Amino acid sequence: MKYILYLITVVVFTSCSAQKELTTNSYIMWVKGIQVDCTGVGPMKCLQVQKNDFIEPGKWQNFYTEIEGFHFQTGSLCKLLVSEEKLDESQVPADGSSIKYKLVEVLEKKPDPIFALHDIWALETIKESQITKPDNNSRLTTPSIEINLTEMKIMGNDGCNQFFGPVKNVEKGILEFGDMGSTMKMCMNMEIPNQFNQAIAKVAKYKVEKMKLTLFDSEDMELLRFKKVD
Q1: Which stretches within the chain are classed as H helix?
Q2: What's the rounded Cα separation, in Å, for the pair 106 and 78?
Q3: Which of 47, 87, 138, 199 could form a disulfide with 63 if both were Cys (CB 3.0 to 4.6 A apart)?
Q4: The domain spanning residue 134 has which CATH number?
Q5: Which residue among 93, 111, 129 closes a domain?
Q6: C-alpha to C-alpha distances, 135 to 132, 141, 189, nearest whole angstrom
Q7: What would the pLDDT profile of 39-94 be if each residue is shown by its tens digit?
Q8: Residue 97: how many CB atoms within 10 A of its CB?
Q9: Number of domains observed in the structure of the chain
Q10: Domain enclosing residue 187, as ranges
């Protein structure tokens, strides 16, 4: 009888110790619904993560290794419970991480709100002034943009020229583009294209509401307003 009680005690103690170790080495990790280009051993795609109970603006960091058991899905914002284990030097692969990350549990999974940007948008206003529809005889078109968060790119037409470039940073309410390239046509009236290009270069924030996309500068001044293209 005493031997049985001893075995039960050992099992309970071992289980509690294992649970304590898991709790000590596990934490909340948020995974954003996009991957970004990054450089580890070579060019690669990185997750963007936060190790916080709650998401904090501007705190996303590139994650250069994998989380065992976790399968990334573009467009899904995930709250995970992740454990980590420090590997012995003999277990670390060449140019690999010395820490092994493992999924304990998916605590929450929902559509990432930034994917409301992932669409084609037609320009309506520049600095709150309605743009006029181009004359049928002109070579101008209504400016439009396409934001592709799967590839982290923006492309579109400024009314005269095609342009393209990277989405440098995006999180809820924050949007930054990288350097743009474009074709070099000259149209009869470059007023709208010039105003559009000056505005798009200053974009720092955004709002999507009722099928409308509004872009702002860093001081919350409205730059451009678009409507979603059906």
Answers
A1: 2-24, 191-200
A2: 7
A3: 47
A4: 2.40.128.270
A5: 111
A6: 9, 9, 11
A7: 987 899 999 999 999 999 999 999 999 999 999 999 999 999 999 998 877 666 66
A8: 15
A9: 2
A10: 115-228
